[in-house]
Amino acid sequence: MTWRTVGQAALGAVLLTAGAGHLSFARREFQAQVPSWFPADKDRVVVLSGYVELAIAAALLTTWQQPARRRLGTAVAAFFVGVFPGNIAQFTERNDALGLDTDAKRALRLLGQPVLVAWALAATR
Questions:
Q1: Beta bridge partner(s), residue 87
Q2: Fewest CB within a 10 Å sphere: which of 4, 70, 86, 103?
Q3: What are phi and psi of 97, to 5 degrees?
């Protein structure tokens, strides 16, 4: 087993947990990351993104052959880029959620998003 395989499985586990959180125990918390300007119901956005995260997690935990694995990594990275405006909104709108209750913590969370993009790409190469 290579570090990439472990990294891919770990990312799948992270997304499995996040997706479950979107649909249950952290549902209201994740609504704080939906930008106030986004023209959709916050709860629907959270539920939809939770289902997407569960699907991505399942794919990460079952797709091991190239070139599908690399394409999956690119799609996962694109998802992380796509939800980044929510992280920016949480910072700029100063929404407390998911333990991000200070500007410093919310700023650190912003720095974590490029790490997730890099993780998705590196683990699936």
A1: none
A2: 103
A3: -170, 155
Please give the Cα distance from 125 to 8 (Å, whole number).
10
- The predicted-structure confidence for 19-69, as pLDDT tens digits, reads as follows 999 999 999 999 988 998 999 999 999 999 999 999 999 999 999 999 999
Q: Which of 17, 10, 16, 15 is nearest to 83 (CA)?
A: 15
Burial of 90 (0-12, 13-18, 19+ CB in 10 A): buried
pLDDT digits (tens, 9 = 90+) for 71-113: 999 999 999 999 999 999 999 999 998 899 999 999 999 999 9
Which pTM value belongs to this model? 0.92
CA angle centred on 24, ends 20 and 28, rounded to 5°: 115
Residue with tokens 């490029």: 114
Q: What span, in angstroms and rounded, lies between the C-alpha atoms of 97 and 123? A: 29
Radius of gyration of the chain measured on its C-alpha atoms: 15
